[in-house]
Amino acid sequence: MIVFLYGDNVYGSKKNLAGIVAKYKEKHEESVNFFEFNFDDSGDWDGLKSAIQTMPLFAENKLIVIKEIFSSKKADDFKDLVEQNNIVDDQDIFLVIWERSSGSKLKTASFLLKNKDIKQKEFTLPKGKKLGSWVEKEFTERGATINSSALNKLITYTNGDVMRLAGEIDKLVAFKGKGMVTEKEVDQLVIPDIERNVFELTDAILANNKDKAFTVLEKSLNDSTNKDVVINILAVVVAQFRNLIVIKDLMDRGVPIPQIASKAGMHPFVVKKSVPALQRFSLEKLTHIYEKLSSLDVTLKSKNINPLLLFDLFLLAV
Predict the structure, then answer these.
(1) pLDDT per residue as tens digits for the range 89-108
(2) Cβ neighbour number for residue 231 with a 10 Å cutoff
(3) At 66, is the pLDDT very low, low, confident or very high (cuts 50, 70, 90)?
(4) For 270-317, how does the pLDDT look when each residue is reduced to its tens digit (9 = 90+)?
(5) Burial 168-186 (b: 16+ CB within 10 A, else e)
(6) Do domains 2-122 and 194-317 have the same CATH topology?
(7) Range 129-189: architecture per CATH
């Protein structure tokens, strides 16, 4: 018997794999031999062959987990091994194959994908509304909940990274307990991943590079056009420009660069990264962009207009 788990959603497939192994061990208790082989690095090919072909002395069932075999040089040999030992129809061997790849990267696994007698499941990364539903489900499974504004902020802060989201959910539930997680807890415990993209977005706006600015924004949105998500991103951008104005004002007043960080109450890294770009812009230009950003923020919150369209209009105006 063979089960094939694959896809880009590594967290989902690993969670499913762990559930399968636990359920099988519970069902067969003492009558199971368990083996696991990982071919991500090199893998024990001889050990795998022995596990499949050797008759067990005591346990009647074999549970064999094989990881990343189709990403290794042994993919073709594995196909022969499966067919020669007729594992698909062997009820005493339970083979669970796990791959983090999907699509064209699984050409060598076509003999499994085309076989209707093999149980297979593809794990794709949830995006947009599906990602929000997935996050809510993960909180529910842990006995907690999260309100909508905190949910949007959490997704924004993690850039929709499922593996990171799972870890942050564990952290938030451990802190909050069985109650409802709010924006306050997200702000306290989750470091925004979007800050890295905000630096790119800010640089693109300053350089008047509209194509790059729009590309970075889309990357930050993680395929979502949820207005609240855009507002969260915009809030970070507005704060960044506010910092730039403060730094530029101190520069224009002749404050030495090493002293700007302490006077502005900012991290030295922020000042160091900002100074080279600010030397090319006037305080008036920065203030103009900041005012346009603030106007965009107000419009987003008060009107039901496509947020990406509004951002495009903003880029044209600055």
Answers:
(1) 887 889 999 998 877 678 88
(2) 18
(3) very high
(4) 788 788 888 888 999 999 999 998 888 888 888 888 777 888 888 888
(5) bbeebbeebeeeebbbebb
(6) no
(7) Orthogonal Bundle (1.10)
State which CATH number among 1.10.3210.10, 3.20.20.140, 1.10.3720.10, 1.20.272.10 fits the domain covering 194-317. 1.20.272.10
Report the distance separating Cα 151 and Cα 138, nearest Å. 12
Domain spans in the chain, listed from the N-terminal domain onward = 2-122, 129-189, 194-317
Q: Are 64 and 93 in contact (CB under 8 A)?
A: yes
Instruction: Give the neighbor-by-neighbor strand order of the sheet with 93-99.
Output: 32-38, 61-67, 93-99, 2-6, 119-122
- Kindly state the tokens that stand for 187: 């702000």
- Find which of 81-90, 198-207, 243-252, 273-282 is predicted with most confidence, using mean pLDDT: 243-252
C-alpha span between 138 and 160 (Å, rounded): 14
- The domain over range 2-122 is classified in CATH as 3.40.350.10: no
